[in-house]
Amino acid sequence: MTTRVARIDTRWSLVCALVASACTSDTSSETPPPAGPVDWVGTVARDPASFASLMERTNRDGWIAFHGNDLRAAETAFEGSDPTMKRSRARVEWSLALLYDDLARASDYTHMAFLSSWAARELPTTPGIETVAATWRGCGGMSDVPDADKLPDIFRAEPTVEAPGRRDRHAVHERARAGEVEALYAVAGVPLVVEPADGFERKFYDPCVYHTLHDAWEGRAQATASASDWRGVARQWGSEAGLEGLLFAPWLTVGDLEAGIANEVHPGTLGASQPSLVQFGVGTDMSVQDDVEVARDDVRALDAAIDLRERSLIAEAGDEGDALLRDLGLHARFRQEWIVARARKAILEGRPHQAMAYLELARDVSVRQVGPSNSPSVLALYAETQVRLGRTREALDVLVLLEQTHPEVLAFRELVGDLAVLQGLDRQGDSKEN
Amino acid sequence: MRFPALPFLLLGVSAAAFAVPLRYAEDRAPAIANPLFTTTMSEARLDELVFDGLFTDDAELRSTPHLAEAGALSEDRLSMTLNLRQGVTWHDGRPFGADDVVFTIKAMQNPTTASTESGRVGWIKAVTKIDDHTVRLDFKRAEFAPEDKLHFKILPAHMFTSTTVSRSDTFRNRPIGTGPFQVVSFNDDNSITMQRNESYFSAVKQDEIVMREVADKNYQAKLIIYQSIEALVRVLPRDLATLQADRKVELYPYQTNSWWYLGFNNTDSDLRDPRVRRALQEMIDIEALLKPIGTGDIITGPFVPSSPYYNHEVPAHAVDVDAATELLTDAGYFYDGRSWTKDGKPLTLRLAAPETLETAQDVVINLQAQFRRQGISIEPEFLGTAEWKEKVWRDRDFDLILSQWSFDRSEDIYEQFHSRGTRNFVGYNDREVDGLLDSARAATDPQEKKAALRTAHAKIAEDVPMVFLWTLDSYSAMSVRVKQVVVHPFYFFTWARDWYVY
């Protein structure tokens, strides 16, 4: 991984050096190259000057961070009121909002499963678990959970004892929603409740962290784009924008973006059924069958088309375009972004097996952690599919990786761990050599 | 074992391409096909194809009836009546029934049989045949979900003369199961050929499965790239990038909660002293041992870092020669500038490792060099499967062992670290850890179990009954021609009846 990242960093430097003359010229009067039907991978490869121009007009470090999936660093780097800069920043804030939306949905599903399993196992309630249930209900955790009406009655009442830190934590959430997210990040890994039990301490974490972080980042994206909803934010990246509305996105062209705005019901599925897929031999309609093979066939078709396109673009591109295409892994980036959108749509539409197959093929397993080859969303969504498919213990394998770059994931990892233990209490362990 | 050169293999592929068997590679061929004595992952995977349990995992990993059709738990939860599936036959055509269930449990429990799986039925007080298709199980204590413990494989009673079964019984290479595939032949090249059980009680799509033993991991990767096998059970981390880039191959996570360790014989007169074990640990540069193998996480105790039981507060150890010197000196050893001695005898340790453990030879050579630099001599011994079971499992005839444990999702370390554990051949014995492991098994509160096992992790790490080394990223590779693949996180082949090569 180190080698690859180092190479990418070197390439980022080299790219700007190669196009230094373009970088130093006055670019403010340049109009962005028309995206039109041209996809962003092809644009960068064929016209590297457009890429260099974007780097100059915004912030190269911001794009390096965005490419490396270091979203918070990218957001900080894209500071400024220039419209191109704002559109770039909104892209990052949008990605952060989607990440926390994914984590919130996964956490809600897991809370529901945990509380239901707790009750089904006839375990006694404690003030701590009552507090978690009440807090979770209070932040809308149950709103999108399937079978929410099946939440046991014991978890529908207000806690018999008020947890000491609950009110303070509520204030931290309020501040985060108002824009001060740092305080919430700081306490995300601190248990909401610690209660002494017989020879051990029970610790329960805040069930609302990801909801609030989603709201905060969504709010920022809307403020940055002066929009009132996600469609308004996404429209900023349409025909009036340049490459900043497309680069590293799951949608290839402005047309694909606009089709998504018109047809998708969730911001995280923009690009999942984009018209450009037809040229890749992939159907725009997703199968309603929750079948792993359907997903694998989609990705295989995409891979075959990408291989052809990569060869053809390399033949067309000059040295700089070639360097960008290969060393920034532009096709690989589009591939993963698209598969993630597709997988998210499969989850939202109730096809977890299909989503799992998509995500197995999306991850770069030779690298493991979040970085240029793996977005945090690919790991978060993979963990979610694992929990939904009863592979609760297996979800921890990716959450422990996600936590390395996103320490706030600790709360979710501990919850998933509790559920995994609860589900396996009656199992007779098996172990073997090798 | 030697293998033919690739061009020859490629010719073989084109000739065999129409037969479409599913050929999978194991590092080590199963030494035995009798679930009473299964000790390795390759044996467990074979069992999964050939045998069935009363219950199995459904696609969401919930226990679902399999050879049992239904189970009724008594109100006091102290017994369960199982109705068995009717019309099921063994691979030899004989009918499956209650006698088989009673036989299997009694054989597993029979101390003379010494089944390595006896721990899986220790909770059953009695098993009684009610009629040909009904059995009653009585438990030692109330059980909440006994079906979760009834996944062990059922054996045919008619193949044995009593519940005292010998490991060397001919059944070991003539297995008769009820599973979706039946063994046709154990072949001279250590491969095993299996064919679809035409009488299986649900559809089996694949005609033939062949297990091939391929000890050379580099060779395994080439075999799947050149389409000479369709499945590779475990990919070495260093091959992940190559296989991932190959459009004819797809990778599937197969994290079996596995970790490598260097175990001490804790009953040995020298190694019984914790100062000696700690000193040896202080001398080992684990990172240097791991480097040639590829990416992985160094561990500090008996769990993988993603485990809910892993204690992240236990610090990783670093090489500390000064501390090692002090500990060995305290323990009565003397360093003469070249080697450590005690009572005039040099400190020499016999290290046993399974000969087919992936890359173990590299690790042993590296380890030997590290110890030599510190004045300690290592005498390595690479053991075949039968020798390993004899010398390590039965006779405990070693000073050090290098091996790997894999755990199902329960990650129950009781058998490895409890003084009564059936897999505790390092001879670890600590009353506090025994208590923690007992508490963990009895716990009904998940956080109580987590707390007990995290404490056990810390205590075991402190006692150093073994040096915990690393866990490797574990993936299996499958040709894109294999369809409908969903891999079970531990047994791998649980849903293989849906797989087929297209």
Q: How is the topology of this model organized?
A:
The complex is a heterodimer of chains A (434) and B (502).
Chain A: H1 2-18, H2 20-24, H3 40-46, H4 48-57, H5 60-67, H6 71-77, H7 83-120, H8 127-138, H9 166-177, H10 182-187, E1 193-196, E2 201-204, H11 209-225, H12 230-235, H13 254-263, H14 292-316, H15 319-327, H16 330-348, H17 352-362, H18 376-388, H19 392-405, H20 410-423, E3 431-433
Antiparallel strand pairs in A: 1-2
Chain B: H1 6-16, E1 22-26, H2 41-50, E2 55-57, E3 63-65, E4 68-73, E5 79-84, H3 98-109, E6 124-131, E7 134-139, E8 181-186, E9 192-196, E10 208-213, H4 217-225, E11 231-235, H5 240-245, E12 249-253, E13 259-264, H6 274-283, H7 286-290, E14 296-298, H8 321-330, E15 334-335, E16 340-342, E17 345-346, E18 348-354, H9 360-373, E19 377-383, H10 385-394, E20 400-407, H11 414-417, H12 431-442, H13 446-463, E21 466-468, E22 470-472, E23 475-479, E24 482-483, E25 500-501
Parallel strand pairs in B: 1-10, 1-11, 18-19, 18-20
Antiparallel strand pairs in B: 2-3, 4-5, 5-7, 6-7, 8-9, 9-10, 11-23, 12-23, 13-20, 13-21, 14-22, 15-16, 16-17, 24-25
DSSP helix fraction of chain B: 25-40%
Q: What structural category arises from helix and sheet content of chain B?
A: alpha+beta
| Overall 3D shape of chain A | globular
Radius of gyration of chain A: 23 Å
H/E series of chain A: HHHHHHHHHHEEHHHHHHHHHHE
Task: Measure the end-to-end span of chain A.
Answer: 27 Å
**Strand proportion of chain A:** under 5%
Strand order in the sheet with the most strands of chain A: 1-2
Could you describe the largest sheet of chain A, including whether it forms a barrel?
2 strands, antiparallel
Instruction: Report the β-strand fraction of chain B as a percent range.
Output: 15-25%
| Strand order in the sheet with the most strands of chain B | 8-9-10-1-11-23-12
Please state the oligomeric state of the protein chains shown: heterodimer
Name the average pLDDT of chain B: 93
Distance between the termini of chain B: 30 Å
Number of helices in the DSSP assignment of chain A: 20
Question: What ranges of chain A have pLDDT less than 50 throughout 5 or more consecutive residues?
Answer: 1-7, 18-36
Global Rg of chain B: 24 Å
Number of helices of chain B: 13
What is the average per-residue confidence, as pLDDT of chain A, rounded to a whole number?
A: 89
